[in-house]
Design brief:
mainly beta, Maltoporin, Chain A, 22-stranded antiparallel barrel, five-stranded mixed sheet, 5 helices, 5% helix, disordered N terminus
Length: 639
């Protein structure tokens, strides 16, 4: 371990017990969690969570959303190169496709990917107002993919008749990042539109490459809320992103690149009845992702890959407050998934295209009851009927107890999660139509303690999660008679492997966090111990799951007085991890960032940062490059 790492790591670990990822408060000091589909006061939430408000997001100066997510408890990230490359997010050791991404109530996913999950690599911190992270299985309200947890992103909402903000930054590797948003709030309509552009020369995606693999991205988003009558409103939302990334092959530099276009649209009607005690939401949304890969070194056909994933959802959600102490949330959903994928060869042969579809019909209900002051109990059930594998039911139960005016909060929850097999795993040449959903059962218990008029806050959570029926790729034997599974279904064509429900895992761990603020001085951070083991029969039994470090830690220390400037140092530690089952070990690493900001006029601030200050050489995926020392300067204006 380099000398500087030995110097800073003890300080990081010590500071983490005095600090945590910031949690968003309103003016009264109350915290509201919206990722539970209906706003819930934080002291009534039984699962652990982190909320990042706009002030915290701007202070961290992230480019991509994953830049700030990895600084919260229990989360690690792997990326196959620089910005725009394939990015996997893991919450508490759950597989990359087992964490759900939501933007403004819209579930983002790509039905054509291997695991059917969201693409975190193209999610940037554009017009974002707030990020909420719910940890542990959350399938009662959110259905499939929510085994690890839910990342809920909320974009800016107008509060003035006309308002806006603009951010422009530039830095290393000819990087330029610009984003802007404008909107207004009136008696009948609230509206906002935003856009961004990002470009960088990047780094070599592979460590054995020499040329840089660039990335460019443009995005746009919009929201509109129309108040039609008392208690009746219409919501329209949309999100669009268009990206182009260069990438390398396993042997090094190539002239290959990929194009990705993704959009999501939402329309919903909200009706509040019985003096607002009975709320209703009826919505339809659709998301679509188009991906194409090209290799300019091919002689006949430059296109190497073409895929389209589409998901259409119909949702009804109701809420009924029997009293201030009893609240019910219930709903019904239908999701229609469609996929098209092809891999053209460098020849004139006809291209074989795979098309697939599946539907999921769901109903759910959750009750939240407060039988006495400070105590909240909750329980829920969800049933999903998949057009391919049939029915699946999950349950949850939990509670929270706020003592001494919220100075101490106890939380405990048992929850179940599931993930439906993706269309790729079911229907491609490596698929199996007999796949069943992945299952998880988890529980957690935690305590939240506030001291010195909330200038010091401490958090501790213990969790466990058992997962089975996990889908993995099974390789066919090469020296014996092939079983039936080693032939493409319905043909006599051999294949070298197939997807099957063959794995089990167990994850348990401790998350410690806290925050301290005295005058202008502040400290925050967290430490996570994640024991995530492969429990499948075979040679890998007992090994830590691939790309899941056993130890994670973050710390941030700084000074931010009220006279318009701030300076801070941020440290991020990731322990050793195995690149893949039975594969090589990735070394641990410690990254150091410096940040500063100064207000030069009302509504105008200049900021800058140096990332990876000591130019640490590290890897999150074997054979793929990572960003070295990087410097950025920017300006932020709002009106």
């Amino acid at each position: 371990m380099p000398e500087f790492r030995l110097v800073f790591l003890p300080a990081l670990l010590a500071g983490s017990f005095l600090s945590t990822a910031a949690i968003a408060n309103d003016a009264s000091g109350e915290i509201v969690v919206s990722a539970l589909r209906t706003p819930v006061d934080s002291d009534r939430v039984s699962s652990s969570f982190t909320i990042l408000d706009l002030e915290t997001i701007e202070a961290e100066q992230p480019v991509a959303v994953t830049d700030i997510l990895v600084r919260t408890p229990g989360i690690n990230m792997s990326r196959n190169g620089g910005y725009g490359a394939a990015t996997s997010l893991r919450i508490r050791g759950a597989d990359a496709g087992q964490s759900l991404l939501v933007i403004d109530g819209m579930r983002l996913s790509d039905a054509s990917t291997t695991d059917g999950g969201a693409d975190f690599g193209n999610l940037f911190a554009d017009d974002i107002e707030r990020i909420e992270i719910l940890r542990g299985p959350q399938s009662i309200l959110w259905g499939s993919h929510a085994i690890g947890g839910v990342v809920n992103v909320v974009t800016a909402r107008p509060t003035e008749p006309l308002e806006g903000r603009v951010t422009l930054e530039a830095g290393s590797r000819n990087t330029l990042n610009a984003r802007a948003g404008v909107g207004g709030s009136g008696k009948a309509i609230d509206w906002r539109i935003a856009g961004s552009t990002f470009t960088t020369d990047g780094i070599s995606a592979r460590t054995n490459g020499t040329e840089r693999d660039g990335y460019r991205r443009q995005s746009a988003s919009g929201t509109l809320t129309a108040r039609i009558a008392t208690g009746l409103s219409l919501d329209l939302r949309g999100f669009y992103a268009d990206g182009r990334n260069d990438f390398d092959g396993s042997s090094g530099d190539t002239r290959a690149y990929g194009l990705t276009q993704a959009w999501t649209a939402y329309a919903g009607v909200n009706a509040a009845l019985l003096d607002g005690r009975f709320t209703n939401r009826l919505a339809v949304m659709e998301s679509r992702t188009d991906r194409e890969n090209f290799d300019r070194d091919r002689s006949v056909r430059s296109q190497t890959f073409d895929a389209q994933g589409r998901s259409r959802r119909f949702e009804y959600q109701g809420g009924f407050a029997l009293s201030d102490a009893v609240h019910f949330t219930f709903g019904a959903e239908r999701e229609e998934q469609r996929m098209r994928t092809a891999s053209p060869g460098d020849n004139t042969l006809p291209v074989t295209t795979t098309r697939a579809e599946a539907d999921i019909d769901s109903v759910y209900a959750q009750a939240r009851v407060s039988p006495m002051a400070g105590l909240t109990l909750e329980g829920g059930v969800r049933h999903d009927d998949h057009s391919r594998f049939g029915g699946n039911t999950v349950f949850s139960a939990g509670g929270s107890f706020a003592l001494w005016n919220g100075g101490t909060i106890l939380r405990a929850q048992y929850s179940e999660g599931f993930k439906a097999p993706s269309l790729y795993q079911l229907f491609t040449q490596y698929g199996s139509a007999d796949l069943q959903p992945e299952h998880a059962k988890g529980w957690e218990a935690g305590v939240e303690q506030h001291l010195l008029d909330r200038r010091v806050s401490l958090f501790a959570t213990y969790f466990e999660r058992d997962s089975d029926n996990l889908i993995d790729f099974a390789y066919c034997p090469t020296t014996s008679t092939l079983p039936e599974e080693c032939y493409i279904p319905g043909t006599d064509v051999e294949r070298f492997g197939y997807y099957a429900n063959i794995d089990e895992s167990r994850a348990r761990g401790v998350e410690l966090a806290g925050s301290a603020q005295f005058g202008g001085w502040f400290a925050r951070g967290n430490v996570s111990w994640i024991d995530a083991e492969d429990r499948s029969d075979g040679a890998t039994y007992g090994q830590q799951l691939p790309r899941v470090p056993r130890y994670l830690a973050n710390g941030s220390f700084g000074y931010a007085p009220k006279d318009g400037y701030s300076v801070s140092i941020a440290l991020r530690y990731s322990g050793k991890s195995r690149d893949r089952a039975g594969g090589v070990m990735l070394d641990d690493y410690l990254l150091t960032d410096l940040r500063a900001e100064v207000t030069v006029a009302e509504g105008l601030a200049l900021y800058g940062r140096v990332e990876n200050l000591f130019d640490t050489d590290y890897a999150t995926a074997n054979g793929y490059g990572t960003l070295g020392r990087s410097a950025f300067l920017g300006a932020r204006a709002r009106f």
